[in-house]
């Protein structure tokens, strides 16, 4: 059973990576809001079924204020904050993917730029008073090198408007993680 966690992470990474190909394909036919609405509607339908099954099986119960230490008002504010940041990030990402020219490798570029949210979380943590491990600085350097090699190999003219939008979405995803951490 020790392999369960890494196996689930591998499956998650594969699905996440394949999603960029689907998003790039969808961007040719569907506007960003329509795509995100459809994707989230499917997610809500699926998770509603999972929640109903878990409740019926007795594996899940409704959260109680006493369990979390948060009031109902705080939970509503946290949910709205998480939802707004996630919505803005998703729309920015899909708008960025949609705006790439045909000759750009939109899936690869957007996947890499979005993955920078991990580095951005670490950097934002510094401004929030968290002392980073030395590995964070190495990761920032490698990420910047990767971004340069991906986006600027033939000069500054290879930077697209979509790169900026997707990078802004990475910042949004980083903020989403920080908001979740605040209300963990």
Give a description of the structure.
Helix content is 77%, strand content 0%. It is mainly α and 184 residues long. The protein has one domain (4-182). Helix 2 packs across helix 4 and helix 4 (72-99) runs antiparallel to helix 8 (161-182).
Show the helix and strand layout.
Elements: H1 4-27, H2 32-56, H3 65-68, H4 72-99, H5 106-115, H6 117-127, H7 134-151, H8 161-182
Helix pairs in contact: 1-5, 2-4, 4-8, 5-8, 6-7, 6-8
Cα gyration radius (Å): 19 Å
Query: In oligomeric terms, what are we looking at?
Result: single chain
Which band does the percent of strand residues land in? under 5%
User: Would you identify the regions where 5 or more consecutive residues have pLDDT less than 50?
Assistant: none
What sequence of helices (H) and strands (E) makes up the elements? HHHHHHHH
The average pLDDT is: 84
| Helical coverage, percent range | over 70%
Number of domains: 1
Distance between the termini: 27 Å
For the sheet with most strands, the description reads: none
What is the tally of beta strands?
0
Number of helices: 8
Structural class: mainly alpha
Shape: globular
Brief characterization of the structure:
This protein has 184 residues and is mostly helical. It has helices spanning 4-27, 32-56, 65-68, 72-99, 106-115, 117-127, 134-151, 161-182.
Descriptive labels:
184 residues; 8 helices; 0% strand
């Amino acid at each position: 059973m020790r392999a369960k966690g890494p196996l689930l992470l591998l499956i998650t990474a594969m699905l996440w990576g394949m999603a960029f190909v689907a998003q790039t394909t969808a961007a040719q036919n569907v506007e960003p809001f329509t795509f995100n609405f459809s994707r989230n509607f499917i997610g809500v339908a699926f998770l509603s079924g999972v929640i109903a099954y878990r409740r019926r099986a007795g594996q899940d119960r409704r959260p109680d204020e006493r369990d979390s230490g948060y009031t109902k008002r705080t939970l509503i504010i946290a949910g709205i904050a998480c939802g707004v940041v996630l919505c803005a990030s998703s729309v920015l990402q899909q708008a960025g993917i949609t705006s790439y020219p045909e000759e750009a490798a939109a899936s690869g570029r957007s996947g890499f730029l979005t993955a920078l949210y991990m580095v951005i979380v670490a950097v934002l943590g510094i401004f929030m008073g968290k002392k980073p491990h030395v590995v964070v600085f190495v990761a920032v350097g490698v990420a910047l090198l990767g971004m340069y090699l991906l986006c600027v190999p033939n000069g500054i003219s290879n930077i697209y408007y979509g790169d900026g939008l997707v990078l802004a979405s990475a910042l949004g995803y980083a903020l989403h993680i920080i908001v979740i951490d605040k209300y963990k």
